[in-house]
Amino acid sequence: MKINGLMSGRWLIVGLAGALLVACKPETPAAKPETLVKTEIARFVERDQTVTLTGEIVAHTQTNLAFRVGGRITERLVDVGSRVKAGQRLARLDRQEQEADVEASRATVRSAQAQVRQLQSALDRQKTLLGRGFTTRRDFDQADTALRTAEGSLNAAIAQLSTAEASLSYTDLVADADGVVTARTAEVGQVAQAGQTMFTVALDGERDAVFDLYESLFFEKYLDKPVTIALLADPAVTAQGTVSEISPTMDTASGTVRVKVAIRPTPEAMTLGSSVSGTAYFMPRRVIVLPWTALSANDGTPAVWVVDPQSKAVSLKSVTIASYETGSVLISGGLAGGETVVTDGTKFLRPNQVVSVAEPDPAYEGDKS
User: Fold this and answer.
1) CA distances from 335 to 294, 310, 318, 330 (A)
2) Is 304 exposed, middle or buried (0-12, 13-18, 19+ CB in 10 A)?
3) Hey, what's the torsion of the CAs at 14, 18, 24, 28, to 10 degrees?
4) How would you label 269-279 residue by residue, b for 16+ Cβ within 10 Å and e otherwise?
5) Burial class (CB in 10 A: 0-12, 13-18, 19+), 364
6) Interval 129-164: pLDDT, tens
7) Radius of gyration of the chain from Cα atoms?
8) pTM for this structure?
């Protein structure tokens, strides 16, 4: 019995040792699953190029109004946003100086008129006496010359009076056409200089839209097609316009060039100051259209991941971007037609990594417009 018990104990120890050896044996690592990505075949298409920018409705014609004479402003009758009519008074200067000039000029005219009447009578007497032989020709000619000189002085006095009256009228600043005041610098008590702009008036009638374009857009081939204008507050309100003016200078602060688009006719809803969008059309370009999720970066330049059709390994290729659209990126260089591009799952990729390609999305594959 002792022998049997001893043998049983030995077999128990052997069994436990074997179990420990099995437990300590390293397991064979499981194969790491391949990264699943979505792809798309790169295809070149003719893509219409459009650019949409935000602008503002302005008057086709704006006038800057200023006093023709200097003086202290005593009245200001309108403000920004006021509607004015042609001939309406907008502001007035202190008129004392001009009124004094008018009175002085009128007195000069009256004096010159009296002088002319007196010399005319003297000439008439000389003429009568000359006919009777009681005066000389020299005295008659002197009287005639004096009258002609007085008449010239009278004409000069009348012209001076006209100038003084005009200066008096210039103390009233009036609108030259119907419109809306869009800016003012006039304040009561201010001393205005002749020619200093007091009001800016946007004249009624035709309207334009102004946009600030980046200089690079001028290198594109513009399509001879009207610009589509839409009211931001109500996109259903649209109009067509043509480029009427391009600024010859660039804004150094923003790097943009101001472009004016004439809107003919202008919808009533597009009032002064309204925000609008303008869409311009450029010549079609041969590009590859990919979803924005396909875009990566390679040393700071745009790039995409391309799948080798044989090994299923990926590599990063730098590309040239033609433009960006909502949800899409247009590639003009760096890819060849027929290459397989990763469109989803790019965040987890590294060069030469083998991937598993998911079935393409039929909805996106069918949208090539």
Assistant:
1) 13, 18, 8, 11
2) buried
3) 170
4) ebeeebebbbe
5) middle
6) 888 888 888 988 999 999 999 999 999 999 999 999
7) 46
8) 0.59
